Amino acid sequence: GYEKSFCLHHATGGNVASFGVEQSKLYIVYMGGKKHDDPSMVTESHHDVLTSVFGSKDEAMKSIVYSYRHGFSGFAAMLTESQAATLAKCSDVVSVRPNIYHEAHTTRSWDFLGLDYDQPREDSGLLQKAKYGEDVIIGVIDSGIWPESRSFDDSGYGPVPARWKGTCQAGQQFDATSCNRKIIGARWFSDDMSDEELKAEYMSPRDLSGHGTHVASTIAGGQVSNVSYGGLAAGVARGGAPRARLAIYKVLWGPRGSGSHAGVLAALDHAIDDGVDVLSLSLGQAGSELFETLHAVERGISVVFSAGNGGPVPQTAWNAVPWVTTVAASTIDRTFPTLISLGNKQMLMGQSLHNNASMNISDFKALVYTRSCSMQSLASSNITGKIVLCYAPAEAAITPPRLALPIVINRTMEAGAKGLIFAQYDANILDILTMCKGNMACVVVDFEIAHTILTYLDKTKNPVMKVSRAMSVIGNQVLSPMVASFSSRGPSVKRC
After folding, report:
1. pLDDT > 70: what percent of the chain?
2. What pLDDT score does 284 carry?
3. Which residues does the UniProt record annotate as the domain Peptidase S8/S53 (predicted)?
């Protein structure tokens, strides 16, 4: 009726013929709540709106990449700037935005939070009262899943909840048997991605980067005994709601985990209709709040976002719309102290994940100081078989440790170093320790420890050092929790 003719009135103002000379790109057109319960009628309304702009229903249908028709109304389509401007004037259209890209954000954590799995019956806690998340359906919008992980074993689970309406979408190295009574559904969304972005990917819900598998197991992984990180942090790994069911929506692609807003909205649209109880999204981009999640919340679905990895700078929290839960990253009461012994019998403490016997450098090695460990400073010193101190406060103030450390590790390994002592300003360093990989021991220290080592170097003709294997320490002696250095922080720059 009137709304449709109002859109036609704007679209037929003489602009159709000029659209062909412009370059098309993907836009997201949001039309608010659904006006029809029948999804096919919602999609037909999208075709009608686009036909009014293209002048041809065939061209309109070809332009659509996704039709959002289950949880809300809208679509993603290839449009020129002029076509997008015309659509924005239609009375049914709430907003028209260019597509943007999102990035991926992520054994004792849950016990530290008081969600102990094996609490005595007389002292049952929140996890027991919640029945370990029994039959709660959690949708994970991320990079997919590796279904063979022991975290997703479905032994002991009953039938899939009858309210579940989703599907197990097959694809490359992922068939119907990849889903089970734990992973009860899986979908993948790639229509918005280029061939280059999908290169070497699994065209299926199977996870290439590992991010989605990590997130899903953290949320709802079942108990897996006898796990550790090279012998460190040994114990039982499990998710926060170990008896919950998982529904997987793959929207992030490639080894770095990147996906577009259009695909995320398609996953959100399906998840609402599939029957999830909770939605988890560990992804985002500055200024890209998913306002469409309001439709999920209206259906009683709890939506949980990560705040982002923009720390330690304030006002970097993403996904901060008021109807969702936005979560920062924090430390727990566990640390990995590593004893450093100097040739003058002085003993200092750093942190590392150095626990591999094949990398053992428990005997003394020559110690050299190469300032920021730039290519120039490393080239000016013979560091082969030696332990390198990388300590440059001025450079550290410019380049965050989590960006500098991987570069330094690669440089020192290529130069044949036996060990690396990396100094940085933040005592909250557990988040970057996993970057210390390869055949070289890597220890992270604060500036105070680094200064002590440098003083020893300056006073000693032939300075030496040895590094002991890391230990696992948990409990009250570890200051926690603290916001992790990489985690985004508030307050939000958005104002409601």
Report:
1. 82
2. 76
3. 133-493
**SS3 of residue 338 by DSSP:** strand
Structure tokens at 166: 């989703």
91: in domain: yes
Residue 399: predicted pLDDT: 80
CA 288 from centroid of its chain's CA atoms:
15
The C-alpha angle 137, 139, 144, rounded to 5 degrees, equals 130
Count CB atoms within 10 A of the CB of residue 10.
17
- Convert 110-138 to b/e letters by CB count within 10 Å (16 or more is b): bbbeebbeeeeeeeeeebbeeebbebbbb
72-76, 325-329, 426-430 — which one is most confidently predicted on average?
72-76
Residue pair 136/246 in contact (Cβ under 8 Å)? The answer is: no
Whether 285 contacts 103, CB under 8 Å: yes
Q: Which of 297, 331, 365 corresponds to the end of one domain? A: 331
Please indicate, yes or no, whether residues 311 and 372 belong to a single structural domain of this protein.
no
Using the predicted structure, report yes or no on whether residue 46 has a pLDDT greater than 70. Answer: yes
Residue 6: exposure state from Cβ atoms within 10 A (0-12, 13-18, ≥19): middle
Given the structure tokens 């603290």, which residue do they identify?
482
Q: What strand order describes the sheet that includes 245-250?
A: 183-188, 245-250, 137-142, 278-281, 302-306, 325-327
pLDDT of residue 386: 93
Is residue 12 scored above 80 in pLDDT?
no
Domain count, the chain: 3
Look at residue 14 and tell me if it is in a domain.
Answer: no
pLDDT for residue 127: 66
- Percentage, residues of the chain above pLDDT 90: 48
Q: Is 70 exceeded by the pLDDT of residue 196?
A: yes
**39 in Cβ contact with 69 (< 8 Å):** yes
Q: What residues have CB less than 8 Å from 231, skipping those under 6 apart?
A: 355
Residue 11 pLDDT greater than 80, yes or no:
no
Nearest to 404 by CA among 359, 364, 371, 358: 371
Q: Residue 15 — pLDDT band, cuts 50, 70, 90?
A: very low
Confidence tier at 256 by pLDDT (50, 70, 90): confident
The neighbour count for residue 341, using CB atoms within 10 Å, is 16
Q: Which helix (H) or strand (E) holds 30?
A: strand 25-30
Answer whether 154's CB lies under 8 Å from 243's CB.
no
CA 489 to chain CA mean position, Å: 16
Nearest to 273 by CA among 240, 242, 309, 247: 247
**Cα(373)–Cα(386) distance, integer angstroms:** 14
Asked whether residue 93 falls in the same domain as residue 121, the answer is no
Spatial distance between the Cα atoms of 86 and 73, rounded to a whole number of angstroms: 18
The residue range of the domain holding 47 is 25-98
